[in-house]
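Forum: Protein Structure Q&A
Topic: Joint prediction for protein chains with partners

I've read a bunch of threads here and the consensus seems to be that you should model interacting components together rather than docking separate models afterwards. I'd like to see that in practice. Below is the full input, 240 residues plus whatever partners are listed. Could one of the regulars post the assembled result?
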Amino acid sequence: MKALTANRLSDGEVVFWRSGAWVERLSDAQIFAEDDPAAEAESAARSQPTIVIDPYLIDLIDSGGFWAPVSYRERIRALGPTNHESHGKQAEGGGAVEALRQAHGAARSSGRVNLIRRK
Amino acid sequence: MYRYDAVDRAVLADRTAEFRDQVQRRLSGELTEDQFKPLRLMNGLYLQLHAYMLRVAVPYGSLNPVQMRALADIARRFDRGYGHFTTRTNIQFNWVKLADSPDILDALVAVDLHEIGRAHV
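Posted by a regular:
Agreed with the consensus. Here's the joint model:
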């Protein structure tokens, strides 16, 4: 399963694609089970350079009923800064935030699909 | 403490006006991110994992009270009420919005602070 993420141009906030719009919570994001819709969404996102910066797909795994990113870096992006629990959207707490905190994944892999772009 | 003279202030005024124009052109789409990124980095504006981060120079690690209050005011108006003093004697604002960054630069220049060269390009 995959999701599409980017940083919002206006404030750098981590956002996720949801049917043509961008949401701030991974729990609200559109989940892609198939490659084609995911690739289509990615190209559509790339045509929005004044809304988001560098959209890309990430891999997800199940964590206690919620989808969580495989990679540690993406879990940090979905949660918030690691220097303090009250910084960023992780301060909201709740089931989704707990699931992101508990998720296990690949510590080393970036979990980003097609990280190395082959020309 | 380093004291700015009229030449320093004129240089900074030009610099902030130029940056304001660059931000405007990025927001309108006239500049791509690849074109804009080195320009914003030259003005100390990073894009980190969660938000933009503006790094402000504190020359010789010395601040006067007027500057201190101006930094606090910037943190309240444009950020989340706090800043981060670094081991390199800079101060960093972690939640700035791109469209506000020219106004923040103007507020810094008004108290003889700047952010030029505060990032690696």
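The beta strands of chain B are 45-47, 52-57, 84-85, 90-96.
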